[in-house]
Amino acid sequence: MDETGQQFLNRTKHCNLGPSDQYLGKPQPPIQLEYDKAQPIIKLPKPSKIVTEFVDSRKIVEQRISLRKYSIEPLTMDQLSYLLWCTQGVKKVFQGTATLRNVPSAGARHALETYLLINNVEGIKPGLYRFLALEHGLIGVSLDQDIADKITKACLNQNFVKSSAVTFLWVAVPYRMNWRYGERGYRYLYLDAGHVCQNLYISAESVNCGTCAIAAYSDDELNQLLGLDGKEQFVIYLATVGSK
Q: Which InterPro entries does UniProt cross-reference here (predicted)?
């Protein structure tokens, strides 16, 4: 039996770690990946302006399931903005070195970026986009007509990826985490991805949408489609969303 997993756990124990780059005084990585400033940003509705109905939290938790079949009703931009706010919304920036968000993260490192495969959202052309958490807006990555088919294929032909209104693709930026925690930071990346996805499940349920998390995909194919090198940045988790 392959012991790769056990070796990873052993090698990332505190007793096996050297000093982190933060401890060594090396400059920390940026709190958000760079983007082309000449590229237009699709501004999303301000979260403070979005009104949601009161839903009992116990009811939301108890009726949460993984949903793979969605209605043809599109998501509104308000709904999309709300879901992004609940999963990666920035509440406060600390002198450009850290952010306080609506999800927990080890050491407030928040080493995830959000990409979106938009299929059926009012006012937004279908395609692949990246969410800019600090600006609370979107920039286009690919508007190719077959991008949904390509991403679905990379997700091992799970067809609800392209029948969803939107599929969230979370991308890990490991050095943002490992700068503080060394190789143990890889553990925290996966924990953080779980926090984010659970917030998506709960927030989607509160606006009468369903969600299904996805961990089965071709790493290399998906990273290539998003323009990632698979090392400094890589896809770590996905989830589909659609109206019930």
A: Bacteriocin_Proc_Enz (IPR052544), Nitroreductase (IPR029479), Nitroreductase-like (IPR000415), SagB-type_dehydrogenase (IPR020051)
